[in-house]
Amino acid sequence: MRNPWAAGCVKIFDDRASGARADRAGLRAALDYVRDGDVLIVWKLDRLGRSLPDLIETVTSLATRSVGFRSLTEAIDTTTPGGRLVFHLFGALGQFERDLIQERTRAGLAAAAARGRKGGRKPVITNEKLNRARAIIASGLTVREAAARLRVGKTALYDALRR
């Protein structure tokens, strides 16, 4: 059902920006507009929230204001007991998925550390560049001038010299 009027909409709010953006004027206006007893209808779940936690927070906030929620594509309707159950199952599955990702990340980092690997970017200032920078500075140039000659950032060079 692509026709919002057929879904019972009385007022339509539209966003032309990506759903991943936090500053969606149309969504903000719709959330400000709805009142006790209203039902906020979206075409798809991703139109309401940038992430599952964001979606759950928004729908929970609507519920505390006695505002229902319907997603036409996923056929979720929180004004019914079954719709609330499905929505909460989505939330529980999303939390489970986030927990698994965190657990796998921690295990991967621990395994990498056990192999002697360290995370993060490789240092920009190698030992060779550091020795050259010290020689340039010893010849009377400033750290800023040494950084420019070595084509590295002055902040990175200052940090390397401190270590």
TrEMBL record:
Residue ranges constituting the Resolvase/invertase-type recombinase catalytic domain according to the UniProt record: 1-116
GO biological process, one term: DNA integration
Cited SMART domains: Resolvase
Keyword field: DNA integration, DNA invertase, DNA recombination, DNA-binding, Plasmid
Keyword DNA-binding: yes
GO molecular function, one term: DNA binding
The family this protein is said to belong to: Belongs to the site-specific recombinase resolvase family.
Protein name, entry field: Putative recombinase
Species of the source: Acidiphilium multivorum (strain DSM 11245 / JCM 8867 / NBRC 100883 / AIU 301)
